[in-house]
Design goal:
By secondary structure, this protein is an alpha+beta fold. It has eleven helices and 13 strands.
Length: 309
């Protein structure tokens, strides 16, 4: 692999551009320190194939979050032109990016997930509000169906805020998810592998503000992380097994992060899968890897070696 030219692809037009640039920069530095012929490449959707050909790229390390990078688009283009790339394939990426489809798969396969309702933008807002009122008690969680980094996500505790949260979520996606609010511990599990898959130590996320929003995720000092999470062994094993089950169900590859809520009775619920998790200074996957003794640069190298051909 060290004889090949590697493009660390980052940036792009999504709402997660800045996070992607931070992720890509950290990966680029790690690979270069390992002796790889890695270069930075900012995604230009109109000239992406030309970029790859002009630089004579052999492998792409995909660090583009959100639109194009995480929804299967880049994966499909790279498969079309025969360039290996890191991470999950086109179908797994597209399915995991869509929270509505993800929820339906979880439910179909018996993976516990919070009870949810799905709406599209063509539905009358008053009808949406009436349906939510019949099905749920507040608080509820309102999510845009195709965003990451907690963008377009609101925890709504009062009726006057619900319509605003719905409108905000529809501003990011044509479909939204409204799910029951699970009070308890917020947990996440990184899973790494290809033909085989291994769950890394569970992380408990404790935001100082009480909400793990964009600011809490990407501002140092705003959130505490307990690694490994202080759980009974039987609970740890159950949650890690669920994470691996979800990883395999979606057909993921490389590294992915499965997010959970665990209620006060100890019942875990899978929220979503992130097929291109952040790799910044405050990111969760590097924290989990470090707990096993795997350095950030070794983690990047391991992901690179699993590049999809």
């Amino acid at each position: 692999m060290k004889t090949k030219k590697i493009a660390v692809l980052m940036g792009g037009p999504s709402t997660e551009r800045e996070v992607s640039l931070n992720t890509g920069g950290a990966i680029l530095k790690a690979l270069q320190e390992k002796g790889y012929q890695a270069i930075a490449m900012e995604l230009n959707p109109l000239h992406f194939v030309e970029q790859i050909k002009a630089e004579k790229i052999d492998v792409v390390f995909n660090a583009v979050h959100g639109k194009f990078g995480e929804d299967g688009t880049i994966q499909g283009v790279l498969e079309l032109i025969g360039i290996p790339y890191t991470g999950s394939g086109m179908l797994a990426s597209a399915v995991a990016m869509d929270k509505v489809i993800s929820k339906r798969l979880f439910m179909a396969d018996g993976i516990p997930t919070p009870r949810s309702l799905f709406f599209q933008h063509t539905t009358n807002t008053s009808e949406i509000l009436q349906t939510i009122d019949k099905q749920f008690e507040l608080p509820v969680v309102v999510k845009a169906a195709s965003q990451g980094s907690s963008i377009g996500v609101s925890i709504v505790s009062d009726a006057p805020s619900l319509e605003t949260a719905i409108e905000e979520a529809f501003g990011y996606s044509d479909h939204i998810v409204v799910e029951e609010f699970i009070k308890g511990k917020e947990l996440t599990v990184a899973v790494i592998g290809d033909e085989t898959a291994q769950a890394l130590p569970i992380i408990e996320i404790v935001p100082h503000s009480g909400k793990y929003d964009y600011r809490s995720k990407y501002t140092k000092g705003c959130t505490d992380y307990i690694v490994p999470a202080e759980l009974e062994d039987v609970v740890t094993e159950r949650i890690q097994n669920l994470a691996v089950k979800a990883f395999r169900l979606f057909g993921c590859r490389g590294v992915a992060r499965v997010d959970f809520m665990m209620d006060e009775a100890g019942q875990p619920y899978v929220l979503e899968i992130n097929t291109i998790p952040g790799m910044t200074a405050t990111s969760l996957v590097p924290k989990a890897a470090a707990a096993t003794g795997l350095s950030f640069s070794d983690l990047c190298e391991q992901i690179l070696k699993m590049a999809r051909k």
